[in-house]
Design goal:
Structural class: mainly alpha
Distance between the termini: 55 Å
Strand content: under 5%
Order of helices and strands: HHHHHHHHHH
Helix content: 55-70%
Mean pLDDT: 90
Length: 198
């Protein structure tokens, strides 16, 4: 027996994995998906199993329709602890200070110069302020330690928005830094941090 029921998606009785996905959708998202499903409806129309299976097994398609990259991105942005880019700025200065300290301890002045020049488009000679310092920096076989210290102090003053732009300009990690997190890896790390109110 075939029968048709006129019902909105937010009243649809999902089950199993389909219900897990539908429960995360807002009313507005369900309404948008409903319009989309009407556009791509099979010739014989949707069955309840077909609708549920779409949410359960092909949610990438629905997530992309809603403007997410995929279902993983949908899940991430529906996490109650999700941090958008503006939220991430609240964490990046403290995180970068720890990262910077690690570079300083492991790589010393060479690390400071490399970070400043490769990630912030600087020149280590920016920190030689007298003729004597310029001459010393130009003639030395190695970067003078005071250059490293000045770069370190300067990098600690960079504001959050500028850090986000320099370090996480895309989601693929930084091309000049080894083992550096992508923006999404950084986001997930910060989402796992205990909240100050906890």
């Amino acid at each position: 027996m075939i029968y048709t029921v006129e019902e909105s998606l937010h009243n649809f009785q999902f089950w199993s994995g389909g219900k897990d996905r539908a429960d995360k959708c807002s009313i507005e998202e369900l309404d948008s998906i409903e319009e989309f499903l009407e556009e791509i409806a099979p010739e014989d129309g949707w069955t309840d199993s077909g609708i549920n299976d779409m949410f359960w097994f092909d949610f990438d398609t629905l997530a992309q329709h809603l403007g997410y990259k995929n279902e993983e991105d949908f899940d991430l942005q529906h996490d109650p602890d999700y941090l958008d880019d503006d939220d991430l700025e609240e964490f990046v200065e403290e995180w970068f200070a720890d990262f910077l300290q690690g570079i300083k301890e492991r790589e010393g002045t060479d690390g400071m110069v490399g970070l400043y020049e490769n990630c912030f488009s600087g020149d280590y000679m920016d920190f030689a302020s007298t003729d004597e310092e310029i001459e010393e920096a130009e003639e030395a076989d190695e970067y003078p330690d005071w250059i490293g210290e000045r770069i370190y102090d300067h990098l600690l003053t960079i504001k959050a928005a500028d850090l986000m732009e320099a370090l996480f300009e895309d989601d693929n990690g930084h091309e000049n830094l080894t083992d550096f997190p992508t923006k999404e890896q950084f986001r997930k790390e910060m989402m796992r941090k205990p909240k100050k109110s906890e």
